[in-house]
Amino acid sequence: MAQQRLPKPRPTQDSLMTVRGQDLPQSLWSQKDVQEACLMRYFVDELAQWFDTCDPSKHFAKVVPQRAANCPALLYAIFSASARHLSRSQYLRTNEVLCLGKKLPFLGDDAALEYQSLCISHLMNLSGNPAEVADENLLAAAVILRFYEEVDSPLIGVDDETYLRGVQVFLDAQGTAAVRDGGLRLAAFWKTPHGANRVILNCAHTLMYCYDERSHTVKEYEQLWDYNQGWNRMAPPTFNPIYLRQPDRSKGEVFPELWFLDDCIVTAIQHWHLARILLAAFDPRVPRLGPGRRAAVGRREAEIKESMFVLCGIARSNKTAPALITACMGVSMCGDRVTDRLEQEALLGILTTTEETHALPTTKAQVQLREAWGWTNSDGRLA
């Protein structure tokens, strides 16, 4: 095949180590320098959970690193994602990059861009080969690159159009095979248990309904609404929170506290609330005029606010990486509707916490909300 392979280390006397009394050849990773060893560990320990949210087999944590030993594109995708996330999250807090007690003075956006460019180069070179396009290892590499394209701004120097075209070819080519074959290929398409999968898909359909350029009928809306409400009624008891506490305003609390059994359930419930927000905001049945309009609008606004606060409460209460990101979507879409100062500060806290915790930029959303809320100092500048 045309795909290049990294050389395997030879078991020489200098590369042997003793483990439990046996001499074993060191792995490929032991031949890497400290920086790249840290990047691999960081992916396994920190970033893989973003991809394995609804995959009980944890393919990205357990299988992908092993496959990367013989797939340069996958290896560089891992290094790029880890370098970018680790350097930004560490630098925001300490102005230096530390990983597993090791200082990494040369790690930054430049290093992430170099790894990303190497990965894209491999993918572009192989994208014209039908056999390589069907390689699930390259699909995983494309998904890792696409992940950062979706949650962060592209690094300077990347040709976005060419980059996305080179990545998308692997995603387009393997969708059908993912359902048929399973394994890593299906994990790359975000395999989920059926209950979570259905509500996530309904959220995607709702998003398409709300933002598609073509016109839609009230019947299409009602089908989405009925499904959203029906899923909520029919979801198994395991999707209920194991602990629920309403906020205490006397203590300055805004969001409810909700604990769920696992990250898959967290993802499902958050996507149900995202769909509910969209359906409430784009309801074509709300009267345009007449005495019933104010009451109908009020009901929908209350639903939007409730779901937005639940999104934030789930993110605060459950330690799963994507939860804060999903909450940020709700805050960015609907935060401007909130008029209470305490609630505004709590919503802004979701955005700042996400940036501090996950190194994902939310500054633009923060500025837009401050402007919408009219937060200005005495000199007219934003507070």
Automatic annotation (TrEMBL):
What GO cellular component entries does it have? nucleus
Organism taxonomic ancestry: Eukaryota, Fungi, Dikarya, Ascomycota, Pezizomycotina
Q: What is its main location?
A: nucleus
Checking Pfam families in the record gives: Fungal_trans_2
Q: What GO annotations for molecular function exist for this entry?
A: DNA-binding transcription factor activity; transcription cis-regulatory region binding
Q: Name one GO biological process term.
A: positive regulation of transcription by RNA polymerase II
Q: What is this protein called?
A: ARCA-like protein
Keyword terms: Nucleus
Localization terms from the record: Nucleus
